[in-house]
Amino acid sequence: MSLIMENEKPAPRAPLSSVNRLRTERPLDVGLAIAGVVLAALILLGLGGPALAPVTLLGCLILPGWVVVRRLTGVDPLARAIGTLVLSAAVYTILSLAMVWTHLWQPRPVAAAVLIASSVLVIVLPAPATDREPQQWRRLLSLEGLRNSSPASHIPWAVLAAALVLWGVALSVTGEGLKGDAGLLSTFPPIWFVAVAAVAGLCIWAVAAREMASTPFLAVSFTGLVAMLYASAAMVVSVPRLPWTYKHIAVTDYIGASGQVDASIDIYNRWPGFFSASAFLGDAVGYPDAIGYASLAEFSFAVLGVALVLAIVRVLSSNRRIQWTAALVFALTNWVNQNYYSPQAFSYTLYLTMCLIALTFLRGTPARFAVAWEEKLSRRRAERAATAQDEAQPRPFAQTLVLPAVIVLLVLQAVSVASHQLTPYLASLALLPLFVFGYFRPRWAGPVLAVLAVLYLLPNLDFVAGKYGLFGFDFLKNASYEPPDGGPTGLLGRAPEALSILIGVLGVGGFVRNLLRGNVRQTIMVAWLAVAPLFWLLIQSYGGEAKFRVYLFALPWLAVGAAWLFWAGPLRTRRAAIGTTAALTAMALLFTITYFQNEAKFRVPKEDVAAAQWLDSTVNPKDAVMETNAFFPLLVGPNYPSYLDAGRTASLTKFIQSSGHGLTSVDVARYADRNFKPDRIFVVFSDSQIAQAAKDNLFDPGTLPTLERQLAGSSNVQRVFENGAVRIYELAKTG
Questions:
Q1: For the whole model, what pTM was predicted?
Q2: Are the beta carbons of 717 and 730 closer than 8 angstroms?
Q3: How far apart are CA 609 and CA 243, in angstroms?
Q4: Would you say 277 and 98 are in contact if contact means Cβ atoms under 8 Å apart?
Q5: From 195's CA, which of 218, 494, 535, 682 has a CA 20 to 30 Å away?
Q6: Share of the chain above pLDDT 70, in %
């Protein structure tokens, strides 16, 4: 028997079939390919509906970008995840622009074709054999450390879970009504503040403790904090909360309904990238009305921005404290509220992605004069060698990746150019000098970024110059311009200024400290990116918003500077931990005050939205509409071009102020006839907007109620809409 066993040879294994080999060696690719085909079938057949819309949207945003990003070996996994989403969005933007410009609007077949093509490419174009992506993600998300940890290490997780549950309970009992004069600050129940304070405290502890928390805990706690700060306001209402969101919804719905753009309507139809992509994806996944998903933008853009800052700092520094602290500072200081459903939020994401690409793949050796300048800034080479410990050296990516990286960079700029009027110029202002002086390569890429922006502007030059003006060379005026709607006053009203000054001082201090430690080249690049937006104030005010955009574009780099200031030393010290904790606590407090106190002024009630939607479905091009004031969401749906023209709408508030006396229904009808020559006249009374007009002391509080009573009792006036909070009257013409 022993001899038989000794001489027995194992039977040869049957070779794996190509299908089995794919399943065994590339399970992720196979799973994504199958999912892509299934989603394409659902889209073509119009199945799934709102229930599966999030899954369908996620698949659409993963597959096209993954075809490209999966082939980038050695790249940080977070950067790859972000690149996947952003590249997919860029693909759909380009396709949607081609469709609206050619009037060939077929979003569902095109989306299905993209998914099927991506599925095929994922299978036939395997990632390089050296790709370690699965191992990287498994290590990043591994719970082995949590399983093997001591019972005390579970306490932060338990506190985090309890705080998130408490937050959910707080939102469920908040309701849509507002109490007091401080917006949501006086409306949220106390447990909301307890929950937010707990999670903010955990995030601060996670970066300032003697031993930093694990990456999974940092990721979950940071995401929870971003959700609490940026999604709370949107989650307690049933419609998008900001009045300026509705014009963007209207443009999106118009494109989705008509399948085209009309440059004669407004500036949005001339820069339609964001709107066409939104209409494209909305139609494909089963949300033809943008009002159904616009509220998701605030959290989505916020968390994506924080992730981009984290990915950028991971390229710049190997110090985990610096990486996560910069991301936390950015989350706690982005008070400008530009994350809502808008082309600027979309283009800002593209800009940060462009910076990530340049810093990852395109860093080079500066020109000789720049190197000589760097040497002058560095006091002693020996000191530089001894102290420059946190500057992450650029990874030696293959030269063959430079051209693809440049192509992607230019594609993202082109998408941004067709989506927003300002962002491409701020991006060019920031990146062009770094390319010209050799900090990024190749040098010709920088001028091309600027040329793309200018070429798109040229056919729209007369429109922009005639309606908005191109230049306003007054730095002080551009920097100090105040929008006509004003803002909070008193101590609470100073919170935005205090937060801006705080991050500015900390950021500049960090630049100085990092420079003195010898990290000269790194500091020059980051400091320039923070300073470059200021030069826009030499050109124009951008409707009074330039100073806010300057702050927004400088903020990521100021956050990096603040993190350098806190942790640039070789070791964590008690003083650094205390200073970091105090500064981050102050930021969290100031941000909460700034972000939530304006809710009463800027929230749009659901009743106003319902009334505006009725108007959108009723008003004809020759009708006139008079509403309470500019914050009523008059432009809300696909019919908005019918009454967009300034000659078709008017504000009762402005009419009352200009008249100087009480009005009657006859006055209103004569004013409308004289200025509009309408077929029909609609007058809108909104309780929330009447209350806000009285609160702002625009005129006698009883003026609008008196006028409405006169209209209601007039024989030539008919009430055509009412939902309890909004009444709409139709007036007979006087002539």
A1: 0.91
A2: yes
A3: 10
A4: no
A5: 494
A6: 85
